[in-house]
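pinging the channel bc i need a second pair of eyes. not urgent but kinda urgent?? the chain im working w is below, pasted from the shared doc
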Amino acid sequence: MKHFMMECPNGEDWEGSDLNALYQAMITDYMNFWCDNNGETIIRYYQGKADWSKRDFSEMVARADFTDDEMIFLEYSSNNRNALYSLCDETKLSVSKMSIIGDKYSAGLFLPKEMAWLAIKDFLETGKPSDKIRWIASKDVNYTFL
């Protein structure tokens, strides 16, 4: 049996598995969802009974930007492997962009919210990184923009 757990930016757990309602909250009502506290959502996908001590799950962290662009940066990890980051524009990898809580990330990693939703939806259904967007290994990102 497949499951996911999601912690919303306000610290509360997402209840239910209605992807339409989740789309409505995360994408349509973007500012209310993401600006409610820390602008970060953690989604854990697992099959059967999760063993949290063994990190027997896949995880996606979504972070919203602090501008009117309404963009989302995704980080995928599974079983303690190197993380994958969403990649939108490699020409902007050395430019910084601030998340809602003020952390700096590479601007090239932020996706338009509709594109990010495609990857989030795929992750919720499969627990794997989506092939609908491009990814870059975290070790391949130059952090000189910080």
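so The beta strands are 2-7, 40-47, 58-64, 71-78, 84-87, 96-98, 104-106, 110-112, 134-137. and The mean pLDDT is 85. — does that match what u expected or am i reading it wrong
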